[in-house]
Amino acid sequence: MTLDGLIAFDQHLLVMLNGSDSMFWDHFILIFTNGLTWVPLLFTLFLLVMKNNETMVQIGLVVGCVLLGVFLSGGINGMIIKPLVARLRPCDDPMLKYTVDVVNNYRASGFSFFSNHAANTMAIAVFMMWLVRSRLLSLTLLSWSLLNGWSRIYLAQHYPLDVVVGWLWGAMMGSVAYYVFYRLYNKVSPPVNYISSQYTTTGYSNVDIHNVMLVLTLTICVAIICALLTMTGSY
Questions:
Q1: pLDDT digit string (tens) for 162-210?
Q2: Tell me, what CATH number does 27's domain have?
Q3: Cβ(33)–Cβ(207) below 8 Å
Q4: Secondary structure letter of residue 198 according to DSSP
Q5: 8 A C-beta contact, residue 220 and residue 140
Q6: Max intra-chain CA distance, the chain
Q7: In the record, which residues are listed under signal peptide (predicted)?
Q8: How confident is the model over 66-115, as pLDDT tens digits?
Q9: Which domain, by its residues, includes 47?
Q10: Would the CA dihedral through 22, 23, 25, 29 be positive or negative?
Q11: Contact at 8 Å (CB) between 121 and 144?
């Protein structure tokens, strides 16, 4: 497929996936895509790290490597790749902005390629997947990242290709950040392999992981309630 053919396919796929005729989904996705919505989840992940590491050095190393992963995924993208490629967002593209659905005139600033939402969330998800080694947490955070990426297509802020590349880049940078963590962690702490139904193999409590699941579930429930109230004009 030629580059022009790939771009045409990307635009066609966007039109298929973008928007809906549902006021509820419009309001819900606007809330879902807002970074502030996920502060409780990120704080709970931080508490998970704090409660399951013994020293401030270990905790600082985890936090530092998470920030490294986010910088490598979103920071480099925002500073170098987006300005270099300079692809207009679908909602700003003269060829598409009157064709796609733009919810409540929501238009993010900057360029489109590639999606920071997809890259940053995937970097966090993949890093935590390697760190905690919980199937439940891994599937949940990967789903969280995938839905965040889809929300950007729904809102016409990114093309599908922008989101897919963001996921791939974020997964690579999250893995790079974990590799850095693994090499440094073995220098400050002895390797331990937990064999218990109460902990993962890397020593993270299943009870604390379930607390993360609870906070994520409550966050989604609150987002649903807020979307319903917005529809009725009560929020």
A1: 999 999 999 999 999 999 999 998 887 766 665 567 889 888 999 999 9
A2: 1.20.144
A3: no
A4: T
A5: no
A6: 59
A7: none
A8: 999 999 999 999 899 999 999 999 998 888 888 888 888 888 888 999 99
A9: 3-232
A10: positive
A11: yes
